[in-house]
Design goal:
Bound molecules: iron/sulfur cluster
Strand order of the largest sheet: 8-7-6-5-4-3-10-9
Shape: elongated
Number of helices: 12
Strand content: 15-25%
Function: Converts 2C-methyl-D-erythritol 2,4-cyclodiphosphate (ME-2,4cPP) into 1-hydroxy-2-methyl-2-(E)-butenyl 4-diphosphate.
Number of strands: 15
Pathway: Isoprenoid biosynthesis; isopentenyl diphosphate biosynthesis via DXP pathway; isopentenyl diphosphate from 1-deoxy-D-xylulose 5-phosphate: step 5/6
CATH superfamily of the largest domain: Dihydropteroate synthase-like
CATH architecture of the largest domain: Alpha-Beta Barrel
Structural class: alpha/beta
CATH topology of the largest domain: TIM Barrel
Organism: Denitrobaculum tricleocarpae
CATH class of the largest domain: Alpha Beta
Number of domains: 2
EC number: 1.17.7.3
Protein name: 4-hydroxy-3-methylbut-2-en-1-yl diphosphate synthase (flavodoxin)
Largest sheet: 8 strands, parallel
Length: 377
């Protein structure tokens, strides 16, 4: 029995596959992925964007391969980046084979759309020869005509049936290294389809609400859809789809996982909305602080609260706490306990200093513990 059972999430048991050196499914951490929106043929721009996503914490990045020039470029991009790359293929089985040869870690392709069974065999062989996994990507907007006729409209049952049809093709080819997505732009449809798929198979699931919209509404829809699924233990890798910079997709993906305690990365700032009682400008402080702390990857919690109404209580649960006090005299908490006061000093500079020092301390402790464990083995 855990100390706080209301926070427990029981993850669906799935098989584990590899996307390059990143594990997806089973007990592997839930990964965050995104997709480049540069021209794949522009190698320099695509490499730069992948690196930006890596810096934001992306575990996996997908790149479109619409033509032969793109798969050629893929071969130049992959050696220059660290994260495993998923090649996004639609219909053209030759692009899939070229992408596997170019070093893609995973192919996003629907075997039912490739054409003849001979072509499917060739793609599966290329994947096996080059150690690629695959992702079956069912989308409510592009369901097979027969399924639409049978079910009348894109519905969860049609989406699950489509996924099972694609799954069967790969299984018939003795291929099991794949994950599946079942996306829709409608939150209800996406969630219901994933729930159905989670019951129907044990393959790892790539979850997402597709074409979710711009930064704000897309973040909200994704948080509701992915949040509901993750909370129910469904989902092994997430992609947030936004009409925005893909780096934002990575950040939102991480924030969703962080909010559910499923991944920890960087500083989790807890701050109040501020009101007439605030003893310093909370909104401006948090805005600047978040930017200044963006480089920290060590998991840590910092509370920034405008006054004593909620400040001490929130600080109790954080690594570093800050509460506004009267006469420009604020209280700083370390590990939940009052530590010192801050008077007439720059709040952001002071908090950044404290967080950086704490991050260095945590990292040093983690390294020392790893060394002790290695020595004990
Ligand atoms: S903590 Fe204080 S300043 Fe912040 S919203 Fe609550 S009452 Fe207002």
């Amino acid at each position: 029995m855990s100390v706080r059972p209301y926070r427990d999430i029981y993850r669906r048991k799935s098989r584990q596959i590899s996307v390059g050196d990143v594990k997806v499914g089973g007990d592997a951490p839930i990964t965050v992925q995104s997709m480049t929106n540069t021209l794949t043929t522009d190698v320099a721009a695509t490499v730069a964007q992948v690196r930006e996503m890596e810096a934001a914490g992306a575990d996996i990045v997908r790149i479109s391969c619409p033509d032969e020039e793109s798969t050629e470029a893929l071969g130049k991009i992959i050696p220059q980046v660290s994260v495993p790359i998923v090649a996004d293929i639609h219909f053209h089985y030759k692009r899939a084979i070229e992408a596997a040869e170019a070093g893609a870690a995973c192919l996003r392709i629907n075997p039912g759309n490739i054409g003849s069974s001979e072509r499917v065999r060739e793609v599966v062989k290329a994947a096996k020869d080059h150690g690629c996994s695959m992702r079956i990507g069912v989308n409510a907007g592009s369901l097979e005509r027969e399924l639409l006729e049978k079910h009348g409209e894109p519905c969860p049952e049609a989406m699950v049936e489509s996924a099972l049809n694609h799954i069967r093709i790969l299984e018939d080819n003795d291929f099991f290294e794949f994950k599946i997505s079942c996306k829709a732009s409608d939150v209800f449809l996406a969630v219901a389809a994933y729930q159905g798929l989670a019951d129907a198979c044990d393959y790892p699931l790539h979850i997402g609400v597709t074409e979710a919209g711009g930064l704000r509404i897309g973040t909200i829809k994704s948080s509701i859809g992915l949040g509901a699924l993750l909370w129910a233990g469904i989902g092994d890798t997430v992609r947030v789809s936004l009409s925005a910079d893909p780096v934002e997709e990575v950040k939102v993906g991480f924030d969703i996982l962080k909010s559910l305690n499923l991944r920890h990365r960087g500083v989790n700032v807890i701050s109040c909305p501020s009101c007439a009682r605030q003893q310093f400008d909370v909104i401006k402080t948090v805005e600047v602080l978040e930017k200044r702390l963006a480089h920290i990857t060590t998991p840590m919690t910092v509370s920034v609260i405008g006054c004593v109404v909620n400040g001490p209580g929130e600080a109790r649960e954080t690594d570093i706490g800050f509460t506004g006090g009267g006469n420009d005299t604020h209280q700083v908490y370390i590990a939940g306990l009052p530590d010192h006061r801050l008077k007439n000093q720059d709040i952001v500079d002071h908090l950044v200093e404290l967080v950086e020092a704490k991050a260095a301390q945590i990292e040093a402790e983690t390294t020392a513990e790893a060394e002790r464990n290695a020595a004990a083995e």
